[in-house]
Design brief:
Length: 152
């Protein structure tokens, strides 16, 4: 499904993305290795079992952020985004563990025309990730430059 043009979005519009994803051990290990993150919290099961309050490895939060935004793309910005302008208010209120299944919801929270690019606008999305128990595990505000529908 292609993304939406700026002028097809409205403040308050909500998306319950149909894709959900179970996080695997490989996801966590490969992502941590690719990003050179050697944190024991992500890689050392024994350390986490005996030395942390969680008793198990935590999924790398940058993976969670990327997955949360990535799942939203098909419904919102695929083929219509010009640029990602930034992520704000990134929060992880609960940990994500290997085996958790995440579902994502997105809301359009702000729209404004670009002052310098009349054929584009700036959209701000609120993305939220929930685990299989319905607990909020991540959220952020993402701003992007979005194409307006081309003139006929």
């Amino acid at each position: 499904m292609p993304g939406l043009y700026f002028d097809e979005l409205r403040v308050g519009q909500r998306f319950e993305h149909p894709i959900s994803r179970t996080v695997t051990e490989a996801d966590n290990l490969i992502f941590s290795a690719l990003t050179h993150n050697p944190a024991l919290l992500h890689l050392d099961e024994e350390y986490c079992r005996t030395q942390t309050e969680y008793g198990q490895r935590l999924v790398n939060s940058c993976f969670t952020l990327g997955l949360m935004v990535g799942i939203s793309v098909g419904d919102t910005t695929l083929g219509t985004a010009v640029a990602n302008l930034g992520w704000d208010e990134v929060r992880f209120p609960r940990p994500v563990f290997v085996g958790d299944t995440l579902r994502i919801e997105t809301e359009v929270v702000e729209l404004r025309d670009s002052r310098s690019r009349p054929d584009q606008g700036i959209v701000t999305f609120l993305h939220q990730a929930f685990n299989q128990r319905g607990e909020l595990v991540a959220h952020c505000r993402r701003s992007g430059l979005q194409r307006k529908r081309p003139a006929p």
